[in-house]
């Protein structure tokens, strides 16, 4: 099984955005050392508690601080931008870090409606045109416009020796079928979807336009030395999600102590229990067993792990324990 990391650059209560970004860079360096396959950075806009609106900038730094791990966006929210602009940025990254750059794209706004308007103007119109935006992006990456096309003489320089690998990210069958139709690799966001993920992944494979469909799944995992410790770590994130759902939690991920003080309503307890169903929480043996069971359910060979805890040290330890549990430096697992 291959293991990768998705980093949303979370800001912890009492810490700064600068500290969150420094923790992201440090974690990427460690992930490279521990043998993780990919390190992807998410994109969010004007969301308190998340520090990464521009993955390409962070990836430029991460690429310079790592040697082997693939780096990428999870995801560039394509309706916010012109495809040519994205092709330029990721061609630049691929020129600097040949054979290591992934370009994940998604259609979500990544922020409020007002933020989307500030970024992209008529965002909904661009969402409707999302399939065409993907086509245009791929054409720019491949530089294969027909001679009579408006952009036939436009090249997103620099042109790398190995192009960025495009991926489509999604949480529903609609995105999976779009990726299949375009013949593009697909990532399913298990950690943020209530849909039937295994069925969606299977539909992607069945409808893939081409050979060798590539797919992996992103899952929320928190690992600690004991189940009790993992449950404590997970509580901070769960409480934060509940607070965000009420328009609160602007100070970032709460401490374990603050999370323990939170008084849940009956409805909030139900919400938290539903969120936990999409998470893997446990000690290294439990986490490995649960991931292997999920692997069998999805019939895939790679998971991308997202871990959010208040303590950046606990987050690093969680990823280290997972790597040790799977011996990701052992070629038999990668």
UniProtKB/TrEMBL annotation:
<dbReference type="Pfam" id="PF00296">
    <property type="entry name" value="Bac_luciferase"/>
</dbReference>
<protein>
    <submittedName>
        <fullName>LLM class flavin-dependent oxidoreductase</fullName>
    </submittedName>
</protein>
<dbReference type="InterPro" id="IPR019949">
    <property type="entry name" value="CmoO-like"/>
</dbReference>
<comment type="similarity">
    <text>To bacterial alkanal monooxygenase alpha and beta chains.</text>
</comment>
<feature type="domain" description="Luciferase-like">
    <location>
        <begin position="1"/>
        <end position="296"/>
    </location>
</feature>
<dbReference type="InterPro" id="IPR011251">
    <property type="entry name" value="Luciferase-like_dom"/>
</dbReference>
<dbReference type="InterPro" id="IPR036661">
    <property type="entry name" value="Luciferase-like_sf"/>
</dbReference>
<dbReference type="InterPro" id="IPR050766">
    <property type="entry name" value="Bact_Lucif_Oxidored"/>
</dbReference>
<dbReference type="GO" id="GO:0005829">
    <property type="term" value="C:cytosol"/>
</dbReference>
<dbReference type="GO" id="GO:0016705">
    <property type="term" value="F:oxidoreductase activity, acting on paired donors, with incorporation or reduction of molecular oxygen"/>
</dbReference>
